[in-house]
Amino acid sequence: MKKNKLVIFSFLLLSLGACKKVIDVKETDFIGGDIALKTVANNESGIIGAYAAMNVEMGILLNATFADEVKPGEFYNAATTHEWQYSSQDVGLRDNYTAFNLYYRIIDRVNRVLVALPNAVAANATEAALKERLRGEALFLRAFCHFELYKYYSNTSVGSELAVAYMETPSLVSTARITLTPFVAKLKADMAAAKPLLPTALTDIYRATRPAVSALQARVALYLKEYTDAITFSSEYITAVPLSPMNQFAGIWTDANRNEVAFKLSRTPSLGGRIGSLFQGTSANSSAIAQSAWVPSTKLMSAYDQANDVRFGVYFRTEPLLAAAGRPAQLVAKYRGTTYGTPGEHVADAKVFRTGEMYLIRAEAYAEGGNLVGAAADLNALRAARITGYTNVTLATKDAAITAILEERFKELPYEGHRFWDLKRRNLPVSRLLADAPNANAQTLPAGSFRFLLPIPNPEINANPLIQQNPGYTN
Predict the structure, then answer these.
(1) Which of 139, 124, 141, 123 is nearest to 196 (CA)?
(2) Does residue 359 fall inside a structural domain?
(3) Residue 211 half-sphere exposure toward CB, CA atoms < 13 A
(4) How, if at all, do strands 70-72 and 316-318 pair?
(5) Residue 474 domain-assigned?
(6) Can you say whether the dihedral through the CA atoms of 361, 364, 366, 368 is positive or negative?
(7) pLDDT number for residue 284
(8) Domains identified in the chain, total number
(9) What is the CATH number of the domain that holds 152?
(10) What is the model's pTM?
(11) I need a surface site. Which of 113, 233, 259, 378 has the fewest CB within 10 A?
């Protein structure tokens, strides 16, 4: 028996030794970051890869369908999310609205660049300048992605409440969520460090610029209720990127011009990204229009001065072919792209930051600080740029100002990924007209409902034992 034990023990030692040797063998088909990101050009490729992974379409669809921007069209297949019945195990939520996989993947990519970049040798002054810019871009993207995760899973201004993990190095180690105070400190540090490294000129708005950082800082400050900062940063953006003339406003959405935009994501027929297909059925030709899952809500369309507001004709359209066939004919036109059956149908760039939003951020911040004259001035300036024959208004009280500004956000920013989170941060309900709801139970999501935050998805819970689930959900 002792002899057998010795044999077994000897075998285990040999096996462990063999395993150790296998572990020590250098892989020949693996390219690590120290090699893949060795040059400045390599690191730029890494940053381009991070931009390529950016996807704001998920937030656009979430805010439209979870709030009151759309109503069911002919093909209603999202009852769980539209009617606020999602859970951490829901297939629709996990597949369509899981920000964890998307944004932490991008964060990991830029973190690898940030680790490798200091060791990349610049061959000349041009590469040295590019190296600095790449660091700024990486920090901007890291901040942007963490803020997106915050909106999905936290969206609080209370420092002691949970945010999400802020990843500053590439890691596969299980990580717990942190509270908002340290999360915000890291977020602000990244934005502040990125800003001076980036170009001021908007020569390439498909990559980060200083105005884009100002816009992100303004947006963050608004969510955190830091209104003085919101005024400062939105003013920086407004100074750099003025409002579009009314007769050029439509060109923003057809990509005929770059008015108001300091940062957008490229979408082309060859690379996909048909944002318009989120709301409108595709077509092989002008007579074969597929069913649309979503059409504009009656509530939203009724909010406009339809005869004089340029936004109404740009954001919506009535399709005669559908009307003639007795099908839902009022469609979202914001990302329409080119005509039926062409490669560019439903293809349009994703506009991440616009001057219209910055005016509304500053107006809200002014109102919160008691500057009703400033709030009215910004609200009037925006409306005058959108509405023919507009007459200025005054704002008598803070409450009246906030109500007017939120109503204007509803009209200025639909299908851009703001509405649901606006209602959450202002502690307001989602209130749909009965005509926009599939049933009476889907008319209202009460203010303060736990469903204003998404559940941490079950795959993340299973993979990370340190992660904390949001209140109201079970795993």
Answers:
(1) 139
(2) no
(3) 25
(4) unpaired
(5) no
(6) negative
(7) 83
(8) 1
(9) 1.25.40.390
(10) 0.92
(11) 259
Structure tokens at 180: 């908002």
Helix (H) or strand (E) holding 154: none
Q: Confirm whether 11 is domain-assigned.
A: no
Q: Are 157 and 222 in contact (CB under 8 A)?
A: no
Name the average pLDDT for the chain: 91
Residue 222 inside a domain? The answer is no
Is 315 in contact with 64 (CB distance < 8 Å)? Answer: no
Residue 4 has pLDDT above 90, yes or no: no
| Average confidence (pLDDT) over 195-217 | 98
The pLDDT of residue 12 is 34
Average pLDDT over residues 418-446: 97
Crossing angle (nearest 10°) for helices 180-194 and 210-223: 160
Alpha carbon distance 78, 82 (integer Å): 6
173-181 — which CB contacts under 8 Å span 24+ positions?
A: 174/463, 174/464, 174/465, 174/466, 174/467, 175/464, 175/466, 175/467, 176/466, 176/467, 176/468, 177/467, 177/468, 180/154, 180/156
Residue 120: which domain range?
Answer: 33-198+427-463
Give mean pLDDT, residues 39-68. Answer: 96
- Which helix (H) or strand (E) segment is 63 a member of? helix 57-66
Cβ count within 10 A of residue 64: 26
pLDDT tens across 90-137, in order?
867 766 888 998 999 999 999 999 999 999 999 999 999 999 999 999
88 against 231, higher pLDDT: 231
Please name every residue paired with 148 in a beta bridge, in sequence order, or none if there are none.
none
With b for 16 or more beta-carbon neighbours within 10 A and e for fewer, the 88-99 pattern comes to: bebeebbeebbb
